[in-house]
C-alpha cells in the first residue's frame, strides 16, 4: 500500500486523515484500510466521517444530478434495481460512523429537525455533531480517535426496530436474548448469506423477506450466555466477529443481542429479518 510505503520512509504518524472528493463512495475505500490483525499492518481504520450540508442535503437526497447518483448497485446487479433513486449522499451518510451536520446557521429550527430525522432514518447509529462554519468543539472523539471498529459498548442503537422515513435507504434493528457460544458459527453463516450472497435465509413462520437488497453497513453486539460479548462490524461484504474490547464489566452483562443493518431495499418491516435470524440460530447443524 502506498501509505505504508510513505510511513516507512518518513517514520510513524499519529493519524492519517484521508479526505475524499465529494462524490466518493466510502464503501469502496473502507475495506482497503480495514486490515486484518494477522497481516501485521500498523494502519487501521478508525472510522468514517461524513460532512453534511444542512441547507442542501434534502435536495441532494431527493433530486440528485446525474453525476450525484450512485451507480455501483446497478453495475453489480444489472437491471435488478428498481424504486427510489439512490444518491451518493445516501451512500456517504449510510456508511458514516460520525456525521458533522454543518451550515446549520442557514436553516430554521424546523428545517434542521427535518434534516436530522432524515439522516437518522438513513443511519440511526452514526453520531451526529451539529455545527456551523465547520467548527467542531474538539478534534479527538469527533473526527479522530473514533475507534469505531474497536468496540460498540457506548453505541446507541435506538429503540426502533425499523426506520423508513427515507425511501431509498433505511435502518433495521434485530434484537434477541443472549446466545450460547456454540451459536457464533451460525451467526457467521447468516452474515455470509446476507452480505456475500445477498440472500436472506427463509423462515417458515414469518412473511417472505426482501430479495433485492444491498447492505451498506452492519454493526452488532452479541451477548453471550457466559457473560462475555462479541462485536460485529461490516462494510458491504467485508465483516468480522471479534471479542469486545471492554470485557471487564462482568457484573453487568449485556441483556440482549443487537444487530443493526443499514442499506437499500430492506423492506417495510423488520419481521422477515428478525424471523430469519432467529430461525437460523435455532438450527441444529
TrEMBL record:
Gene Ontology MF terms = GTP binding; hydrolase activity
Origin superkingdom: Eukaryota
Query: Keyword set for this entry?
Result: Chaperone, GTP-binding, Hydrolase, Nucleotide-binding, Zinc
Q: SUPFAM superfamilies recorded for this chain?
A: Hypothetical protein YjiA, C-terminal domain (SSF90002), P-loop containing nucleoside triphosphate hydrolases (SSF52540)
Q: Which Gene3D superfamilies match?
A: CobW-like, C-terminal domain (3.30.1220.10), P-loop containing nucleotide triphosphate hydrolases (3.40.50.300)
Q: Name one GO cellular component term.
A: cytoplasm
Reaction(s) the record says it catalyses: GTP + H2O = GDP + phosphate + H(+)
Query: Which ranges carry the CobW/HypB/UreG nucleotide-binding domain?
Result: 1-128
Every copy of the CobW C-terminal domain together lies at: 214-268
One Pfam family hit: CobW_C
> Member of which family?
Belongs to the SIMIBI class G3E GTPase family. ZNG1 subfamily.
- Write the protein's name: CobW domain-containing protein
Source species: Aspergillus sclerotialis
